[in-house]
Automatic annotation (TrEMBL):
Keywords: Glycoprotein, Ion channel, Ion transport, Membrane, Receptor, Transmembrane, Transmembrane helix, Transport
The organism of origin for this protein: Cryomorpha ignava
InterPro entries according to UniProt: Ionotropic_Glu_rcpt, Iontro_rcpt_C, Solute-binding_3/MltF_N
Keyword Ion transport attributed: yes
Domain Solute-binding protein family 3/N-terminal: 39-368
Domain Ionotropic glutamate receptor C-terminal: 39-367
The protein's name: Transporter substrate-binding domain-containing protein
Subcellular location: Membrane
Amino acid sequence: MHSFKLSNFVFFVSILFITVQVGAQGVVIKQDSAAASQPLKVGIAGNEPFVFNDLDNPRGIAIEIWEDLANEKEWTFKYVPFNTVNAALTALQNKELDLVVGPISITSDRVTKMSFSQPYYQSSLSIASRADGKGLWSRIKPFFSFSLLVAVGIFVFILAIVGTLFWLAEHKASPEQFPKDPVKGIGNGMWLAIVTMSTTGYGDMAPITLRGRIIAGIWMVVTIIFATSMVAGIASTLTLSGLGTSTIRNAEELSTKKAATIAGSPAVAFLKEYSATVIQTSNLDEAMNKLKNKTVDAVVYDQPQLMYFLKVNNDENLYIAKAEYYKQGYGFAFPLTSPLVYDVNRTLLRLAEEHVVQEIIDEYLGKQK
């Protein structure tokens, strides 16, 4: 009796195990069959070197990685090109596509609306600017700034105060040097303050009263410190204006400057964070043309695209800052409930382990140091 129950139990467990296995295999088969039953609609969008806008011969880093992956899985597909990444992602959310291939940044906002593969490339934002030297106006412009005019105004006001003190102390004892007329007397006092400050000492004027000499002594000590600081500031301004360029080396230098980027890029929020004036464009070529034409001061976008642009155009007047911001991964985008994500991730891992992904990247960008 016991042996009969035990055998029934073993049989039941065996049947249950086989059922679970068949069910699990059915899910995987369903994924593959879903991909293989009809061609996948693959949206492609983005900039070179990840996607080249050539309908007859689609190529680029993202395209080649996807095609190697699709060949591994024996999937058939057809490309649907889009002018912008945002347009492709909108079509994906509207269930017009099975996935989007390109330099798609994996962001916290996007993962709430769609699924992503694991990153096939780690990118970051960089700053491109001109490396041209400053012209004559740029060199002398600091001397016509509002802050300098304010400083000059304050200096003249201080001279007027010192000149008035000299006149009050000296005009009775030395009317020849400091006439009783306030305008002429204070004017002479200001002249004495200037020649004292500059250590020129023409000898045409000098205080003769004790109060006048005390004022002159205090003014000499004050002007030694003041003149030294002023001369150092002028020298620094001349040096910076002479050697400076329009090159932007870090994000802090973007403040109040005009910077272009691609509409919808994470760089838009980045530029607003650093108080830059954001100029949004439809593509990178348009943004870089604005930089060359001096319509904007910088272009902020993903580093590999900027590096590739510089490599292809070989423009020595463009400079890409070494600073990197907003490190982010590029992946393939899918609808939230897509059954393709698992197979894509597994195949991507294998291609990465076999160095296929890195070889494709090196082909376009060169070996990264």
